[in-house]
Amino acid sequence: MERTQKIATGSILIGLVVLALKLMAWAMTGSVALLSDAMESIVNVATAIAALIAIRIAARPADSNHPYGHHKAEFFSAVLEGVLIIIAALFILREAAQAFMNPRVLDAPLTGLAVNVAANILNGVWCWVLLREGRRLRSPALVADGRHLLSDVVSSVGVAVGVLLAILTGWVLLDPILAALVAVNILWSGWRVVSTSLSGLMDEAVPEGELEQIRAVISDAAEGAIEAHDLKTRQAGQATFIEFHLVVDGDTSVTSAHDICDRIERALHAEFADAQVTIHVEPEDKAKHSGVVVL
């Protein structure tokens, strides 16, 4: 979790640098398209702060009021990110509409564009770091931040190309049109972040690939049992909750059944470091002849 917090702190610092560069590019050119790019960077900084707060809360150990931990705090951060992204997109649409009604020639366009491109390169590198480390650390907040930055990078490239075309062709209306297209892209990004986070808040099961991996681990580690059924999973931040019924021979002692459960839990923790495992032991007459057959 300490690594996650360091990356989240880095997002704030990178976001502030990128924001300063993009605001400089807008001030130099007066381009509403570059303003839209800068507005998204303001959202980047705000959401990076929200992500850091959520990650710090999620790192707290379970207590009497939160016996299952605070892992879902990261999902709330991701939802907030999505909402802020959508608000920024609506603001950009308003600015684009005003610029469309009152178009203007850009000032010092090439110099401002060069500054914007430098900011986009920095954003692209940090986006790659967030997505890679967010997935490795199983952090919804970092992944959401990375996806947002990815949409920012893509739209920024489009803005840079479009502004360059506006400079070369002299078609000033291209500037607000680009800003509107950026806003639509940001709206889509915000919706994806919100919908993904809501799935986590609704206790959606882990992806099918991970589910098959869990079944395989249980089957390999449950020697001495008969079967495992009623497997349920959900994910909350970095924690994966796994629950199932384990069928053993009716003559199996409590100690032996407990040893089997311990072996399964160790195997699951080896594959899923933050797994929270709950096993309900049942005698063989409760077998459903379905689910996970023990090898």
Automatic annotation (TrEMBL):
Residue ranges of coiled coil: none
Transmembrane segments: 12-35, 41-59, 75-93, 113-131, 152-171
Pfam families with a match to the protein in the record: Cation_efflux, ZT_dimer
Domain of life: Bacteria
Gene Ontology CC terms: plasma membrane
Subcellular location: Cell membrane
GO biological process, one term: intracellular zinc ion homeostasis
GO MF terms, alphabetically ordered: cadmium ion transmembrane transporter activity; ferrous iron transmembrane transporter activity; zinc efflux antiporter activity
Keyword annotations of the record: Cell membrane, Membrane, Transmembrane, Transmembrane helix, Transport
Domain Cation efflux protein cytoplasmic: residue ranges: 207-284
Major subcellular location class: membrane
Cation efflux protein transmembrane domain: residues covered: 11-202
Membrane topology: Multi-pass membrane protein
NCBIfam families in the record: CDF
Family: Belongs to the cation diffusion facilitator (CDF) transporter (TC 2.A.4) family.
Record-given protein name: Protein p34
